[in-house]
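Data availability excerpt. The first of two example chains:
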Amino acid sequence: MSAALSGTEMRAIAKEAFIYGWPVCEHYNTLYAYSIDVKNPDYKAPLNQIHSTARVFTPEDKVIVTPNSDTPYSFAWLDLRTEPVVITVPAMEKDRYFSFQMIDMYTHNFDYLGTRCTGNSGGVYMITGPGWKGGSYSGEGPPAKVDKVLSCETPLALAMVRTQLKGPEDLENVKAIQSGYKVTPLSSYLGKPTPEAKSVNWPKSDKALTMTVKTYEILDFVLSLLPVHESERELRARLLQLGIGSGGLRISESPPEVVEALEQGMKDGWAEYEEVIEKSFAQGKMSSADLFGTRDFLKNEYIKRFGGAKLGIYGNSREEAFYPLYKTLDGQALDASKSSYKLVLSKKDQEIPKAFWSLTMYDGVSQLLVENPLNRYLLNSAMLPSMKVAEDGSVTLHISASSPGPELESNWLPAPSGLFYMVMRLYLPNSDAFSGGWQQPKLQLVPK
């Protein structure tokens, strides 16, 4: 497969494959854990069934990095290989935010259902996969009983659902809404026999594996299931020169020079991530608004898709949510073992999102939520009634490893005693959030 390639050429292709494909592999890890490996403690439901978690995420949830803890999640992995899937959404209050983020196997957000796109009146929607020739079951055009048809370019997709929780007393309302979410293969929806999909030998994978050279085997497997997009024909042909996309790549059977090229390609990929994404964020030249969206929005700039997967896979498109990141202050990594911090949100800052805002704490190493005595993983706008708010409507959030004292504890976001980062979430932001009309509030050091 690589006889005509030099070591330099193989390394270049390996780097290209890694940047292009690592998000695909991380996405596959979620598929495998949530819908394939029934023994996995994070298993949710089989393909084409929806599973709702009637609670917010905690530090015990370890599959998805940088998860939100504002909204209880529902998940449905969709198998679109043989037929479409029908999603039913119940009506709910107009002031409750919810969204179905539709994610293809490349991690593009190919479409949405929810408050912003389809409203809160409920509806029935059909998701179709590549090459679907069946039209719709009413004859021509959208089916009579379906409000919208969403087309996915890959035969597998994730429907990731967020339902706003307004406080602990609201949990039963959220449970009732989640029970109304339905995912049904089209044949079952019509009361007809379900066509049998071709069996697949799903390879085992997890985060530890996809941080090694074996990630190329996972990428090879997933790409073998996906049709080649017209814009990527030349790219996919280059990857095939290393056997990636053939469905038969085995690292243990590959020549040493190929394995060496793959390993070096991974290192080169990580170096480009540091150079392009990390530096751009530190310099304020890039934000989360640049990393998540449709294929058309991302324009096949694969390092951005890679950056999104590393910083927080499954981030929303910018119209749905905006994610100001707090990772450094004056060029120094945030470290609660050395310093305490505060963040002042003005009234205007709090009005940028039409739905709600939050600030969530993450461990700087694991990228997961942080255990703490209060079991408090974030501060958000729903908590304002119990927080200290200034007369001008501003609120000061205190960030530290130890309590700032009883008087300020209502505004305290506990941090680990070490490296950390925080993500602000602005749901349904106005355009000022990402057009330059608003600047995220600056984190401040608290004098010792």
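And the second chain:
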Amino acid sequence: MWYHYIGIGGVGMSALAAIMLSKGHKVTGSDIKESKEVKQLRELGAKVYIGHKGENIQEPDVVVYSSAIKEDNPERVLARKRGIKELHRSENLAEILNHNYGIAIAGSHGKTTTSAMVAYILSKLQKDPTALIGGYVPQFRGNYLVGENDLVVAEADESDGSFLNYKPMIGSVSSVEADHLENYGFNLDKLYEAYSQFVNNIQSLALICADDKKTASLKDFARGKVLTYGISDGDLQAYDIKEGLSTKFRVRFKKEDLGEFEISLPGKHNVANTLVAIGIALELGLDLDEVKVALKDFVGTGRRFETRFEKNGLLVIDDYAHHPTEIKATLAAARNRYPDKELWLAFQPHRYSRTKIFWQEFIESLKKADKIVILGIYAPPPEEPIEGISGNNLALELQKLGKTTYYLETLDEAAEFLANNLLANSLLLTMGAGDITKLPDLLQQKLD
């Protein structure tokens, strides 16, 4: 088969393209710019064009597009004109996931870390899985694994409802929160209904977080076995949690004590993520002692509490958190791991619509930092500005609460300010889903 990927450099698309190449398929594609992912795909044998043009479409059997690629894209237009089959990214993934022993990780938070953790355990225990991860995994040297076994691990993205294409053998839901509501008519009930359909699509085992009542109620929609998990409740429960330079905790499965586990990742949210991996290991009959070793060895994923540099006592950590719940959890984890450091937060809001919906929740979570830098809102197309919703106004609200808060519109302005104001014993968290991940490098250049 010949697959052509429009937007081939994206994190989900690049993983699919690489796996299709590994299976012997011909792969071409296009993207708007050069990138590390594009370079890697070319090295694997893909022909990649820069820019979206109709002439990039030759005679592929299938054209694959993501939700970011609209119907008027010139390559999609020409594909339809020629009668070439089109697949959404999720439909292409479903071809892999549904025809193997699929393991799909869903929920508002924790998908990337949990799916990478599960794939890493399976890999370390010689189960040779295929995996498609929504972020860079240092121990994979990329965002995917190609395996010979029938085990396939993937994230199930709820943002546009496309996760309903998946019919995994094992599936998990960590949480259901009011995010991406623009794709659900701004109706939380419709989002919950989509999750209930996803749970009903799980063929064998549904792992459902019991820490939140609304999420826990999804167990009623399962067609097969259910395993609830959590810190406050669940069949699989973590307790005696000790946070420091690593995180240690004990686990009980119903009434059976499974012993102590240790992970390098910070925060109770990562303890909950680990419970999903343990639950899947139990279902697959893996040796728990070997699982414990793999978990301790797992270093996490890019942009999830990722240390970027340390200089003269200043520690800079980058994180993808862009929802108030994630911000609150990440700040708490930072406090517990580095209690003696002054905690600075540089936050770039992501999308006007999300900032408006969670305005008060953002204020409540952001104020947990000692000092706060707010940047301009990062708004990918087709987002448009909303009157009264801005990074500056968010900073003003925090200042009214007595929080030391600064508004700096651009990355360059933020880097310059931070270089002149951060003290030696500070921890800086750069946070957001946009291009704020560039800020640590800009800051390091100015400090050097």
